[in-house]
Amino acid sequence: MNAMRWLTEDEQATWRAFLHATTLLDDHLDRQLQRDAGMPHMYYALLSTLSETPGRQMRMTELAEQTKITRSRLSHAVARLEGNGWLRRESCPTDRRGQVCVLTDAGYEELVRTAPGHVTAVRTAIFDRLTPEQTEQLGEISRIIAEGLHQPEDADLPWLR
């Protein structure tokens, strides 16, 4: 049997700082978007992701993977955003079982209206506090963590649930 590898004191302090920062950042961005647009951060992420795709549309399964959420959470969010007139679902032309999520013109307009406040919130919370070197390190560290969690064949990834 392998001995348990507990976190060192420095690792524990780093872990807690990371956890506190990500929790506070999620809350900060959610509050800003709720206040300015009446939507949670996840809804904004869906609109933003679709706005960057050809035809402003994407298969639902691919959208779940891109936004790192479960298919059921995506379905619920899309239903809400459809109710606002910001998204619509269409049958996939290449697969009868699949659906495509489309960002409507109204959804795109809402994203354009909301983006400046959101970018300002991100900039003031993160990038205005970091040096260019720290920004580069944060990006590198984040990619390493994400790749490690994405790699194992048996990974329990949200979009597969």
What is this structure's SSE topology?
Blueprint: H1 9-37, H2 41-51, E1 57-59, H3 60-67, H4 71-83, E2 87-92, E3 95-103, H5 105-125, H6 132-150
Antiparallel strand pairs: 1-3, 2-3
Descriptive overview:
The protein is mainly alpha-helical and 161 residues long. Helices cover 63% and strands 11% of the residues. The chain has six helices and three strands, in the order ααβααββαα. Strands 1-3-2 form a three-stranded antiparallel beta sheet. Helix 1 packs across helix 5. The radius of gyration is 18 Å and the shape is globular.
Please tag this protein with its features.
6 helices; 161 residues; 11% strand; 3-stranded antiparallel beta sheet; globular; mainly alpha
Task: Give a short overview.
This protein has 161 residues and is mostly helical.
Beta strand %? 5-15%
Order of adjacent strands in the largest pleated sheet = 1-3-2
Please provide the ordered H/E string of secondary-structure elements: HHEHHEEHH
Whole-number average pLDDT? Answer: 92
Query: What is the distance, rounded to the nearest whole angstrom, between the alpha carbons of the first and last residues?
Result: 32 Å
Give the C-alpha Rg: 18 Å
What proportion of the residues is helical, as a percent range?
Answer: 55-70%
Tell how many strands the DSSP assignment holds.
Answer: 3
The assembly state of the depicted protein chains is single chain
User: Which class best fits the helix and strand makeup?
Assistant: mainly alpha
Number of helices: 6
Residue runs with pLDDT of under 50 for 5 or more positions? none
Task: Give a quick account of the main beta sheet: strands, pairing sense, barrel closure.
Answer: 3 strands, antiparallel
Shape: globular
